[in-house]
Amino acid sequence: MSLRIPYETVLETVKQALMNSGLTEEKAQICAEIHTQSNADGVESHGLNRVPRFVDYVQKGFINPKGEPELVGGKGAVENYDGHLGIGITNALFCADRAMALAKEHGIGCVALKNSTHWMRGGTYAWKMAEAGFMGISWINTESCMPLWGSDEPGVGNNPFCIAIPREDGPIVLDMAMSQYAYGKLGVYRLAGKKLPFPGGFDKEGNLTDDPGAIEESRRILPTGYWKGSGMAIALDLAAALMANGNSGLDMDEAGNGSCTGCCQIFIAYDPYLFGSKEEIQGMLNRRVAAADASHPAKEGDVITCPGERTRATRERSKKEGVQVDETIWQQVVAISKGDLNTKDIASK
């Protein structure tokens, strides 16, 4: 069952929960803002749903609340950092900022981060770069949670990839896992007692299904585009580990320290006006988006939009009517905010 809770109430409750888990007030504030914003934008799977698991990982020592990014090396427009298993959100925000600083100087900036933890909603950092006027590209590698095409067991991460276009009339932001549905999204549908809109994986008998619980149980999520998503996932894994000189998905599998613990992340910022004026670039973007949005819908009454265009409307509704949260997850977060750190995370990846 879903509830709508006032934005500030959600923010303060999450902040207190994170402070109770050992975060400083400053870091708890930053993380609470990101978690709350994710829910407000309609991304529950990587907003509040992740808070109980985050607290659990801090307690287990998988996440070091005191860990900070440390510069390992740099050359021109590229820098490499060790995240020291610090908080994924604060590590990633730091690296996105560094990528933009490098792009201001060089036209393009690339930061490779190793030994970090789950960054929660990957789109957060692409949105940040686009709203600052840069094209942003980022991705992460994860432990194996998806079968390679043709396999019946997890052999690769679903390695989310994000790209954001800095359109002044509204950024176009793609934030996608290499699986048809991320585990977090499966959890959202399961908790709501709903089937998936489209088949998202296989059950234990190998049947394609829209039952999120059956897919979670089998761990056979469906790669996006079948063999194409599978191939893209392994390529992103290798590229991230190569660029950051850090862990591959196999290294994380062997360590067995939970979702994304010890992962690599890449952040690229690009100055969109290196080879064209703002007027001509923005004009091109607006014409292209308008043409795409004018596409004839397959079903009468449907509205065609580019990725990210509906996010701002969802955000505004959340600010006015309250942030949508799952009742069970909300009860867990409230319990943690009151000092009950034994609350178990029932939300899926």
From TrEMBL:
InterPro entries: Mal/L-sulf/L-lact_DH-like_ah (IPR043144), Mal/L-sulf/L-lact_DH-like_NADP (IPR043143), Mal/L-sulfo/L-lacto_DH-like_sf (IPR036111), Malate/L-lactate_DH-like (IPR003767). Keywords: Oxidoreductase. One of its GO terms (molecular function) is 3-dehydro-L-gulonate 2-dehydrogenase activity. Its EC number is 1.1.1.130. It is an enzyme of class 1 (oxidoreductase). Pfam families: Ldh_2. Gene3D superfamilies: 1.10.1530.10, Hypothetical oxidoreductase yiak, domain 2 (3.30.1370.60). It comes from the Bacteria. NCBIfam families: PRK13260.1. This is 3-dehydro-L-gulonate 2-dehydrogenase.
